[in-house]
């Protein structure tokens, strides 16, 4: 047997992958599938008794020995598939290894002498995580929770060995692996049969099973199903009111449709009048489902998009969920947290408790909020000193942290049933009632534009403002590639009921991007629309138009507020989805303090500077057009 460290085993995985690519010319997806088949085969072989094992030729370097072993391996894989769980049989359409004899022999030469069942759980999982680079994961659609995040969540939740625990969207089993690692360090008894996992992706469940169950220490219960709408036979694991702890990172941004799912069991799928909604975001339903799995007094840790706490679309759902349990701790994570895992999203970790019988849901509680800004690396993956997650993971009680952790605070007391709904105010910057006005009270319109079809762009026509035209210091109206749309597109926009044409005094800001950090980063005001572009302009769908009501707030005054870094962050906390999208109904809820609205004298000098910025931008546009005209004259002379 080969003794392997995580790094050694990862190197063997990589060598096997390279053999499949070089010998058989497989793609990364195909290579990964064949590697999983080999791991299933190895699991089957390691369960054989001594008599059966004696019939298998040993791993050999000589051609004849390798040929005989390959023939046996193919036959044994068919046997492994016959005895495999239904979840495994759903991964592949047949029971064949699709490697050539040479390719299979090469993979076997790397991994044949490794006894996976004797390897510790953390060795197997760490090796797989090391082998799966971020690029590899993105190609395979695998988004792992970063180890540092998983460790922090496990430490804060602090499940005890012997408690019943489930991850209903387990992926590759990251959380339970970290949990078992923690218990091993504590040298406590492992009650793996008290643990359970579920996932609707058979490949993910197989990976989790490979990481967690292919070794000593008992077996973790598992089921292949959609935990939100479980299939028949899942009720032995997905039992409401059964678990001491639920810990999970479910999929984000999936829109559930009432036509395809039974919404009747979830209050978060109902409107305020009790009628079923036509659609709902999966993350809000997952939150309710996880709370329902908990016994009274049980604890939940769940990774969700920040919009779960701020978007008005979830208002009634938050109220309904507040009747099941309450917020205990919240960890805000920066956008780069999941960058290395292959995705970009603004996430938050909610720690909640299910109410105990006869618990007063109107009793007061104080939520401990940790606002993490440093996860040990930046948006490019480069190392950053001062990882706040590491400090947080060393604390046994987040609510008792001292001044050495300035990124945390206790929020004001709030009734437990309102802990989710009141937190929205902190996420969007809401102050005490009566001291703020919402943006919706101060504007005539907020809405996104319309991106033209690719074939609608022309060299002349209607000028369309794009993200690149916003500079954060005045709008650049100098035409570039694809800055005009056709007359047909103009008529389409004129016939629309949406506000699609800008006018002086309108504010434009970025509202759609690949990462939340770009949302609201550029904010500019339209001072005038130059005649050089036709005196008329529209804007793309990646921009949000904010039209202030001049009788309630000066547009330049509002521009100043929207450019404040704190306000930009409040806006970014409203974004939804895996890619970042700001919705008009959410931005309308942005809170603007009355003190700012009324402080015309205090911001007069800033307003004057912004006015000067607009004059400079206007002059720059005129100058740029004149330069372009002169250059064209010179080109004509030369030609």
Would you kindly provide a written description of the structure presented here, covering whatever features stand out?
With 639 residues, the protein is α/β, with parallel strands linked by helices. The protein has three domains: 6-118; 121-428, Rossmann fold, CATH 3.40.50; 440-623, DNA methylase specificity domains (Adenine-n6-DNA-methyltransferase TaqI, Chain A, domain 2, Alpha-Beta Complex), CATH 3.90.220.20. The chain is built from 21 helices and 25 strands. The protein has a nine-stranded mixed beta sheet. Strands 15-23-19-21 form a four-stranded antiparallel beta sheet. Helix 11 (202-212) links the parallel strand 2 and strand 3. The longest helix is centred in the C-terminal third of the chain and has 35 residues, at 604-638.
Offer a concise description of the structure.
It is built from 21 helices and 25 strands.
Note the topology.
Blueprint: H1 6-24, H2 28-46, H3 50-53, H4 63-83, H5 86-89, H6 101-111, H7 121-131, H8 134-140, H9 147-157, E1 165-167, H10 174-186, E2 195-199, H11 202-212, E3 221-224, E4 243-248, E5 255-257, E6 279-281, H12 282-293, E7 294-305, H13 315-321, E8 325-332, E9 347-354, E10 364-365, E11 368-371, H14 388-393, E12 408-410, E13 414-415, H15 419-428, E14 436-438, E15 443-448, E16 457-458, E17 462-465, E18 484-485, H16 487-494, E19 507-510, E20 512-513, E21 523-525, E22 537-539, E23 543-548, H17 555-562, H18 565-572, E24 580-581, H19 584-587, E25 591-593, H20 594-597, H21 604-638
Parallel strand pairs: 1-2, 1-4, 2-3, 4-7, 8-11, 17-22
Antiparallel strand pairs: 5-6, 7-9, 8-9, 10-13, 11-12, 14-25, 15-23, 16-18, 17-18, 19-21, 19-23, 20-24
